[in-house]
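ok so dumb question maybe but i'm new to this and my supervisor (M.) told me to 'just get the structure for Transcriptional regulator, AsnC family' and walked off. so i did the thing. is this what she meant?? sequence i used:
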Amino acid sequence: MAPSLGVLPRRGLRAAPQWAKLDVMAHASADSVLSPGDQRLVAALQCDGRVSAERAAQVLGVSPATVRRRLHALIGDGVVRVVVSPVARPRGGGAAGALFLRIRVLRGKLDTIVAALAARDDIPFIDVTTSGDEIFAVARTEPGSRDPLVFRQLPSTQAVTALESATILHVFRVVSEWRHQVLSPAERAALDPAAAPPPEGAASPGPYGIEADAVEEALLDALAPDARLPAAALATRTGLPESTVRRRLARLAAQGRLVTQVLVDPRALGLAIEAKLLLHVAPDHLAAAGRALADHPAVHGAFATSGPSNLHAAAYFTDLAALYGFLSRDLTGLGITHVETAIVSRAVKRTPALAHPAVG
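this is what came out, is it supposed to look like this??
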């Protein structure tokens, strides 16, 4: 019997969008690679998702008209989206944490389970691996809680054959911090908005969520699906004065709380392989290994977690040879005793939720 969507309840009944639709006029397939100029523009957006055309043009050495034209094409054709990162969504009070989920399903039932998970607002990331029966996902949750998805809904679904969950204990690198290596350090420094350091003694918001007042929450909700909305459009959507919008956006950015993320198919950047890495690391090497992974240009996610695989990472590579080199060379000397590698065949969901998850 196919699993019921009632078992995995939809939260916010929306179909999972296709983030990486490439420009069919300029590109033959999803495996096409963007031009060097477009890749540099994507990298500029990674540094500052709300960068102006004039500023990007100045740093990249092109005209503002070129930047506007290419941004219009890339965003308009769905090749690129700039959104508010899940790590910077308002928490709405309470603690915020996250679980890594590794789900194995009966062959033939993969798409049904994936669709049910993708419809949930509390699951911002879903990947399917090349094994054909395996799903990796991230679920927002309250730390230490008996999450109903893990404790009741997934285990009671007949199509689910195995479930592993691991709590994120420490974040070394999130995908919004990853930078495509096509800009010089000077160019990246010129584009990165200066953010004030957090106040001394301030508590970390954890993997997901920031504290926000009602005005900031309204702004971040409006920006969630399109972080490049101009101030005038935000004022119209929120009902706030444009001067207030500009002042609050500037404060969020200065405090490092306006975190944007560029959604783009890595294959369009020449990165054909994405791998998930589950690592066993000796406790006295865990922090150093996590920092080393976070500093590696291929790694777009690195987290200390509960469970036997106490360090999880995700990375992009140009090809399998580059992945092999990473495993055989770059991971040596880090105190890693065991590595399990899973190659992603399909990135199903790469988005922050557009509304707060339902309670219960």
